[in-house]
Amino acid sequence: MQRTVILGTTRFAALPFLLQQNDAIASLPELIGKKFARQYGLRFSPLPLDIVAGTQSMAWHVRHEADSAQAWLRKTVVGSVRDVVAEMRNQRK
Q1: How many domains does the chain have?
Q2: pLDDT tens digits, 20-79
Q3: Burial call 72-83: b when 16+ CB within 10 Å, e when fewer
Q4: Do 1 and 26 share a structural domain?
Q5: At what angle do helices 68-91 and 30-40 cross, to 10 degrees?
Q6: pTM of this structure
Q7: Given Cys at both, which of 9, 25, 44, 46 links 37, Cβ 3.0 to 4.6 Å?
Q8: Are residues 16 and 33 in the same domain?
């Protein structure tokens, strides 16, 4: 197999608009791909090969480790991401 990259983006949010305007395909996490397909009238198909799942992480400077506002923000972000992922998983059932 060979691929030809015609566009690149660091933001998943741009993909539906790029795909609607180009004769192209994109590989992205399944939950996001299925949501975009429903929401923007795109087609979704599983990849024809195995891909190792990626991981998500946060990083912050060590001097903010004990900062209560930073700790609250990190906890809030983690909770929000978990909620969104759970909602997306429920929608695909």
Answers
A1: 2
A2: 988 888 988 888 888 899 999 999 998 888 877 777 888 999 999 999 999 999 999 999
A3: eeeeeeeeeeee
A4: yes
A5: 60
A6: 0.61
A7: 44
A8: yes
